[in-house]
Amino acid sequence: MEVISTGLKYLVVPVDGGLAEARITVPDLEDRLKSIGAEFAYLFDINSFEGRHWNNDGIMEDVATGSAAGVVGAYALKHGLVKPGEAFVLKQGHFMGRPSEIIVTPFGAQDDIERVTVAGEVAFVGKGQVIAP
Question: pTM of the prediction?
Answer without folding.
Answer: 0.87
